[in-house]
Design goal:
- The structure is a single chain.
- The chain is elongated, with a radius of gyration of 17 Å.
- The protein folds into 2 domains: 69 residues, Quinone Oxidoreductase, Chain A, domain 1 (Alpha-Beta Complex); 46 residues, no CATH class.
- A 3-stranded antiparallel β-sheet has the order 1-2-3.
- It is of the alpha+beta class.
- It is built from 3 helices and 3 strands, in the order βββααα.
- Helix content is 30%, strand content 11%.
Length: 121
């Protein structure tokens, strides 16, 4: 089954799991290295199994669908900005700003402007 992004309610935890319990609302990208030969996929299913380290508690203000739309896209946006080495004083043009990765890159840059005093045009 294809798919990396997931959100849902934990129905069972392994004996060594310490950060989560049954009933927790979570979201994740269940592939630790999607661009480097993922060792797991299969989020397009009723149930899936994943490692504890890949999960996060779903923010209360997001629906399950909204939470599931974020992980891979936000990781891609952040990694793109990191690889670009973007620094204060430089200009950044986001092509495809209406898509998932592009819109999240714009939101990250707006937050950097707020926090670090960058100028957003």
């Amino acid at each position: 089954m294809p798919g990396y992004d997931v959100s849902g309610v934990i129905v069972k935890v392994g004996s060594e799991v310490t950060s989560f319990k049954e009933g927790d609302e979570v979201y994740a990208n269940i592939s630790e290295a999607a661009l480097n030969g993922p060792k797991q996929w299969g989020s397009i299913a009723q149930y899936t199994v994943t490692e504890e380290k890949l999960l996060g508690i779903k923010p209360k203000n997001l629906s399950f669908a909204e939470a599931a739309s974020l992980p891979l896209a936000i990781e891609t946006a952040l990694e793109g900005l990191e690889r670009a080495g973007f620094k204060e004083g430089q200009t950044l043009l986001v092509l495809g700003g209406a898509g998932g990765v592009g819109s999240l890159a714009i939101q990250v840059m707006k937050e950097l402007c707020r926090v670090k005093g960058f100028i957003f045009i």
